[in-house]
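Propose amino acids for all 298 sites.
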């Protein structure tokens, strides 16, 4: 099995980057990641303002998959996520869902006994997830802190061990990178970060011919999600809904109108994050509905 060290990382996803690792279609890879502060915050006296933007949201990679070509789909199975023994959170008055209402503060959160210990009285069940994961865009150079159609900083808390993420291949080899793991995070990430933590992620990567799914697309095991990131949140909500509706009407006997009616009865609009340059929404549909429609995933 292949492995890649966390120091082989990038801060932008772009089409002209040299891969740090080459693998074959269907291979497994162990990816070591730094936390979103590049592991630079070690105690609560260090505030976010002491961390330069050139150290925020590193993603380990890129990983090139031999045979992946533009127009293909990359299937990324998240096999396991192992996290460190402490997580870090910061706040800043200029960032988050409520700017101007919080102090600049750092909190170190111990991880033990399967929980994140926010304080002596508050312990939170762990649910490690990947915040940044994406392929190289076709033309633009996009910071790893920003989500777009190639993936990136989607901060979607359902990207956990046991889930499968589908991403577009826009350059030869796809050039997959990932990082920004959280020990636990709530939807929307309102304080601008989750429990940021270094991790070791094991994945299996498979190349699919063509684009059988709207991308990015997530299979969590019991549900599927279409994911959209737009400058305005309502645009992300509409686009993730359209993606699911159009795909369902393409692969099932339902026409677009009946598909939207079914989504209105059984689906859910959910907000992944509202604090990045582009906001991310996802549309959830239970797989039991897909089964009744005779739809299978690739």
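Proposal:
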């Amino acid at each position: 099995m292949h492995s890649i060290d966390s120091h082989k990382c990038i801060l932008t996803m772009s089409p002209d980057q040299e891969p740090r690792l080459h693998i074959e279609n269907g291979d497994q890879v162990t990816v070591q990641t730094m936390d979103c502060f590049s592991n630079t915050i070690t105690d609560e006296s260090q505030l976010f303002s002491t961390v330069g933007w050139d150290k925020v949201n590193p993603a380990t990679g890129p990983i090139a998959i031999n045979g992946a070509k533009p127009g293909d789909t990359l299937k990324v199975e998240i096999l396991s996520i192992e996290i460190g023994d402490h997580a870090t959170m910061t706040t800043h008055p200029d960032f988050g869902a409520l700017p101007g209402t919080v102090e600049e503060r750092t909190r170190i959160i111990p991880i033990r006994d399967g929980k994140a210990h926010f304080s002596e009285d508050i312990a939170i069940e762990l649910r490690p997830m990947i915040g940044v994961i994406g392929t190289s865009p076709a033309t633009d150079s996009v910071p790893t802190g920003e989500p777009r159609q190639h993936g990136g900083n989607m901060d979607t808390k359902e990207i956990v061990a046991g889930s499968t993420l589908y991403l577009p291949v826009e350059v030869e080899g796809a050039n997959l990178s990932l990082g920004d793991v959280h020990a636990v995070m709530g939807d929307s990430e309102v304080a601008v970060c989750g429990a940021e933590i270094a991790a070791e992620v094991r994945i299996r990567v498979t190349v699919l011919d063509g684009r059988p799914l709207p991308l990015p697309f997530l299979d969590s095991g019991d549900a599927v999600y279409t994911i959209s990131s737009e400058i305005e949140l309502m645009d992300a909500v509409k686009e993730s809904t359209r993606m699911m509706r159009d795909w369902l009407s393409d692969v099932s006997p339902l026409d677009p109108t009946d598909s939207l009616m079914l989504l209105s009865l059984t689906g859910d609009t959910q907000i992944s994050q509202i604090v990045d340059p582009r906001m991310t929404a996802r549309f959830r549909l239970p797989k039991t509905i897909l089964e009744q429609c005779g739809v299978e995933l690739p």
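The chain has a mean pLDDT of 97. The two ends are 24 Å apart (CA to CA).
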